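User: Sequence in, structure out. Go.
Assistant: Echoing your sequence, followed by the structure tokens.
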Amino acid sequence: MIASSVCETVLAAALSRGGTFAEIFYEDSRRFAMTLRSGKIENAAVSRPCGAGIRVYDGLRSIYVYTCDVTQEGLLRAARRAAAAVTDTRGRGRDVTLESREVANIHPVRRLMLSVPANERADILRAADSAARAVSPKITQVTAGLASREQHVLIANSEGLYVQDTRVYTRLTCSAIASDGAENQTGSENPGALMGFELFDSRVDPSAVGRKAAQTASAMLDAPYCRAGEMPVVIAGGFGGVIFHEACGHSLEATSVEPGMSEFCGRLGQQIAAPCVTAIDDGTMPGEWGSENIDDEGTPTTRLVLIENGILKNYMIDRLNGLKMGMAPTGSGRRESYAYAPTSRMRNTFIAAGQDDEEEMIRTMGDGLYAAKMGGGSVNPATGEFNFAVQEGYLVKDGRIVSPVRGASLIGRGKEILMRIDRVGREMTMGQGMCGSLSGSVPTNVGQPTIRVSRLTVGGK
């Protein structure tokens, strides 16, 4: 890590020509990745990204310079380049005194990935591969991956903050392809957590991961195409929460709200969802994929109620956008690495559990679609318009699931789907993903109970 005395010198250099605020974000990470394809280990790689970013506020404008030279001279060189772009002379020639702050670690790690014998790591991949292949002779290819990131960060700023944190991420990915010789279908599972290798002691069963991926691929291979039209849709929990994440979550980030590019601008205190909907962005959940002790600006992480009983309560706010909006940061400032300036991002974002029975949702929906697993999609935060693929879907007739269907997509607008949710199940589960935005790709959890949308456009063949 960088000594506080060095940080004080670098921050003073960043403010030497003016500016109202300066910050150092230092990162030293260790990454591991191993891949098994067609039953063979293809690669096992270790890397160590290390560098620092210097940020200076020039009024309400941010200047960002980053470097992989973390010697004192390298940091000073980056700080002087940032200072050279400053036009606001306030704060010129300021001295900086730092005070170390301790952070309580609510995500203890028992086994770091790189401390685990290589054969034990490979056994995780082999278990997933073997279970996937046992599902059906139509499973023609399985790819499994094991990845970890041990990220050590230091954040120092001109307000006197000097704080350090360590985040350890572990993830298993498995993709299975089913083929009948003419067509292919893919199923995937990608569980992860803010944990070490102990993830596989109790939370994640590699065999179950492989089996589930292969079952999705097999079910979709023989399924007829989904019909298109407007119909009731029941969306399963876990990764089904990607609908809320994309169709609403991004529109509640200050990155979209502050410049007026969100459909929810100026709507705090107003109803934006059905009364049965409460949505939360929580970075304090121990061991969860999107959690942290502090955000990438050094602000303690928080549990933030976004929507309560349909009423918009909060936005997710980083430091710079908070200044522009006249609102306090919410511990939501995140970035992929030292190569990115931070901005407001989601963490563990989910629709909270409700009171409705999952079987009753389907039994009383008439004809419609049950989306058991969601795939990728896209959204325009300014309008809330979205389009998402359904990776695993089932046709519902007269309140009964009758057959799998493929090729389904869900199409609509965020504010419309929120108001049309008429059932929220009792058990909330989450799925893990990587979310891309202005500050790069960061780990996020998406989640929800099983929910029912009374009317939604379904795209099909």
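User: And one key feature?
Assistant: The two ends are 56 Å apart (CA to CA).
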